[in-house]
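Tutorial sheet, problem 5. The two components below are modelled jointly, 434 residues in total.
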Amino acid sequence: MKISLVINGKDHEIDIDPGQYLLEVLRDLGYKSVRRSCNSASCGSCTVLLNGAPVLSCSTFAVSVDGQSIETVEGLSEGDRLHPIQEAILEEGGAQCGYCIPGIVLTGEALIRENPEPSDEDIRLALNGNLCRCTGYEPQNRAIKKAAELLRSDRDD
Amino acid sequence: MLSNVSEYFRPRTVEEAFTIMESDRDHSIFLSGGTIVALMESSRIERIIDLKALRLDTVSLKGDELVIGATTTIESFRKDNLVRKEFGDFFYESLSCVGSWQIRNMATIGGSIAPKLGWSDVSACLLAVGANLMVYGADGYRRMVLSDYFTLPAGEKPLITHIMISRDGWLSAFKKFSKTTFDIATVNVALSIKSESGRIKSARVVCGSRPQYPVRFEVVESALEDLKINEVMPSIVRSLVFDNFAGGSNMLASFEYRKHLASVMAQRAAERIMEMM
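Model answer (structure tokens):
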């Protein structure tokens, strides 16, 4: 069956099977930042933004989001210029193996859009569903806070 | 991928959704938030009936009741202004510990009740506020008490369309014990108290993940009636829950461990309610 998706602002018409998950469809389209890990809604590596809200693409049926807007990490950077959260994660040492990072960046981005001044507690709660086996979360918490500050100062300028 | 799925339906009315389900119940499944369906990996599922087009995703106030559409997501429900106005921080705080932000953006209130999951935090909280359901089945629409839904005969599977709740002077608190903040409950307890002249007029004591579906401990509720609300009240709640715990063992916890945890969670919930008074 045919569905349409708006992925990072770009329209796609896609042929899918009705039992196919969004994760599979996105990766087939070349959005390789969307990672398959646990495949059981437990790790957050497959996080994408659906109409701005973080969801797990490994357990979202593609057909059920027909016509809707999806954001992946590929849509955040502008050419060679990284998004402030990506930049801050690099600066704070938040990426080691890097597998979880696209999910964490998107969850952080959704949090900052909803709450431009997140507390440490807000960040910890938001990242509850993004597992990282390398860093212990502290660098990523710092990075999201730093990016939020930067985005606030950009907005105020 | 659910490889045997060959048909996808997006009905526009509740009646249509139910009719499609009835035409081949053995191979069909309702899709609400999708978190349960996607993880089933069942070869039995050949037909998905998506409930999104039914537009049951709103919260409204009708009389003194909040009416919640069954496909309202957990996250939008707990953050809803009407819900917060009527129930304060109860649902906002309690449901913040359901899964992750991502899961709460997907999972729905109706979808959390329908599979009759033992560990459902949503079901435990709704039982504690005396929720009623509007369901659609072979005989059309009917209203039923939430606890009655859990004991429906196996063959009777109506579609939940709305959940109705009313604060009506109750104060509620919820406590959950799980291995991690992300995990399902090893035990959860929701407690509601209505007070009068410094005493408990009525109580609802709910325990879930026993591991069976959540139930009210009515013996405990009766014993709490007319109890003076003071600093020893929470420890009395704990003792009563410990002595009257009804549950079992599974891979998460033994009966004895659960009984202990439930009593401690009940005490903490009672302490939280006292803070609100």
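Marking note: Residues 28 and 47 of chain B are 5 Å apart (CA to CA). Full credit if you identified this.
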